[in-house]
From TrEMBL:
Gene Ontology cellular-component terms listed: DASH complex; mitotic spindle polar microtubule; mitotic spindle pole body
Lineage, opening ranks: Eukaryota, Fungi, Dikarya, Basidiomycota, Agaricomycotina
GO BP annotation list: mitotic sister chromatid biorientation
Major site of localization recorded for this protein: nucleus
UniProt protein name: DASH complex subunit DAM1
PANTHER family registered for this protein in UniProt: DASH COMPLEX SUBUNIT DAM1 (PTHR28113)
UniProtKB keywords: Centromere, Chromosome, Chromosome partition, Cytoplasm, Cytoskeleton, Kinetochore, Microtubule, Nucleus
Keyword Cytoplasm included in the entry's annotation: yes
Species per Swiss-Prot/TrEMBL record: Lentinula edodes
Cross-referenced InterPro entries: DASH_Dam1
Length: 243
């Protein structure tokens, strides 16, 4: 029997070559899509990694606190603020009482002079008696230590905290000892007559030495919280406050 003549296309159509070609094409398409997905994933990773490197670079330029505050830190801070407020209020109340006693002493001296003029013969006796009386009064005033009310303590503590916020970071808690020295300097100026002091008036060794007191005064002068004056030949510091 004679075999029928077959052209190439006719032979291909009768065999599974096209179906295999279609399968391979689908496999190739799947692999290409997988590569595209991998490329997108790598792009996302590159962006995330670049962001992480940028954050690490920025973190190197910021302040790295050695230890985060815990519950004990807040308790100690509250105790220290309360102790400082009590000390400041006691000093303020003592200053107010000292000012209130001045008019009475002036009135007493005026009465003494009137008595001396009225009785010239008793001048020597009256002077000797009156000169001893003010001395006793001054000793009694210095011996008293007044306590401030809770409201006055709170107001003074809040004012002190507000002033500290205007100062550089090292005075706001970066260095606890330096902050304590700054609080002592501010309270010393508040308690001084007319709120005017000299540098030696603020020195309280060993904690508050001359170098630390001078550093605190320089910071206050730079923030215009106090005013430095040397017109009289002596360097004086006048309290200005903050607006």
């Amino acid at each position: 029997m004679q075999t029928p003549h077959r052209t190439p296309l006719r032979r291909i159509s009768q065999e599974p070559a096209m179906s295999e070609f279609i399968d391979e094409t689908e496999t190739l398409q799947t692999n290409v899509e997988g590569l595209k997905h991998l490329s997108d994933t790598l792009d996302t990773f590159n962006e995330s990694f670049a962001s992480w490197l940028y954050v690490m670079n920025m973190n190197a330029l910021t302040v790295d606190w050695p230890q985060a505050p815990h519950d004990g830190s807040f308790i100690l801070a509250e105790r220290r603020a309360e102790r400082n407020a009590i000390t400041a209020m006691q000093a303020l109340q003592a200053q107010l009482q000292a000012k209130s006693t001045r008019p009475s002493s002036i009135e007493g001296s005026v009465n003494d002079q009137t008595t001396i003029i009225a009785d010239p013969e008793a001048t020597f006796t009256m002077n000797s008696n009156n000169s001893s009386a003010p001395a006793k009064t001054k000793k009694v005033v210095k011996g008293k230590k007044l306590k401030l009310t809770a409201k006055e303590k709170k107001e003074r503590a809040l004012e002190l905290e507000r002033i500290i916020t205007f100062l550089p970071l090292e005075f706001r808690g970066s260095d606890p000892n330096l902050r304590r020295n700054m609080e002592a300097v501010i309270e010393g100026m508040w308690d001084a007559p007319n709120q005017t002091v000299k540098l030696p008036d603020l020195i309280k060794p060993p904690d508050l030495n001359q170098a630390r007191a001078n550093k605190c005064l320089i910071a206050l002068v730079n923030r215009k919280i106090i005013k430095k004056e040397s017109s009289t030949g002596t360097v004086l510091y006048h309290w200005q406050g903050v607006a």
